[in-house]
Queue: 2 jobs
Job 1
Amino acid sequence: MAMKALISDIHGNLEALEAVLREIRHQGIDEIWCLGDIVGYGPEPIECTDLVRRNCSLVLMGNHDWALLNSPVGFNTLAAAMVYKTKEWMRITDNSTEEDKERWNFLSQLPLSAEVGDMLLVHASPRAELSEYILPSDVAHDPDKFAEIFSMIDRVCVVGHSHVPCCIAENLDLAVVRGESFTVALNDRKRIINVGSVGQPRDGDNRACFVTFNEDVARYTRVPYNYRRTMDKINKLGDEYQMLGYRLGLGR
């Protein structure tokens, strides 16, 4: 298998997405897969959706994408407010252009999962594609959860959703990603690979995160970007949205 790049949880953060796409091109990788949540939290969902459409050969539905198309059921107040703001920007009206309609149709037709060879790709979890979090802390607290998830995996399952990059093996060996670059050898053991977040990391590192992989290895890359520019754009939306910008600097 040729080298692929996996991205997830862009969340309307154009600066982060552009920085990641530049790094992917710099690494000479031609094929990109996106695990969803193109929209939500961030100020430029239209631009991010268009970049994903142009650059990704495989794209999945995320829970924020689904909420945009439907409603933000179960979202906290701030996340729901941003979904409704995004609806204002992206919903189809009598004045919508053909490009607007194509963009909305693209999002509405995204699949919940994909299987490529012995690899399963979902936004959140095989048990609940849009909603279940897979977190490093679950390894110690909920081993039965992983027994069921691994029973659904042939070899590798790649997820996003939690914004916390990590790798969990079937024997519950846990590798939490730290530093500039982190590599996981893909041997015969089943693994869950969480690719982290492009647009809103939550592991204390505010740099964008993505993963490259082939048959033998998965490699995490962190990419600095101008998060202050994204913060400024969010702050201009109103005082009620400022926390969404503030957390970008913290990586939390």
Job 2
Amino acid sequence: MLELVIKAVISYLLGSIIGSLVMGRVAGGVDIRSEGSGNAGGTNALRTRGWKFALPVVLIDAGKGVLAVLVIAPLSIPLIPEAAFRPEWIAVACGISAVIGHVWPVWHGFRGGKGMATYLGALGVLAWPALVVGILIWLVVLLLTGYVGLSTIVAAVAVAAYCLLITGFSPLFVFGLVMAGFIVFTHRSNLQRLRDGTEHRFEKVMIFRRLLGN
């Protein structure tokens, strides 16, 4: 149990390193939480600072999920008894902890992003086919609707369903289910704006609508 707790805490601390705030310091003290939507994630970075700023932000945030599952989870800790958990469960716990750290970062006043990039990084290590499914569904929904938040929510729920279909009740499905619920929670403001009709929409990516002339 001690091994699981230590690795989860390390993963949380790693997740608390926010890509946009790291890049903001490199750019001379920019804090995108004071710009645009006020979120520290990749979408707000893209809207407020452009792709040259947003790309390394997403890579850093996704990299945290990769490192948590690929490096921290299997790490051997001297003098600490091995956990009475299967390695898959430890990997899942580390992935979830990294996402939690991204959303509520201890290094940055517990004001982070919405967790999607870090979640995708962890998912890519745990099950890359599920990642491919999630990305494809995200793209389809985005191209149909133009809503990034809605696309993200639908993709996360679809990944959980895919994991259940392929693996049954497994550590991977639990990861997908917990993350789907978490993504819905962190995107609750997007859902509220959708209900109010005020959600930002990327009209330019709605190629199906343009092809149909609507």
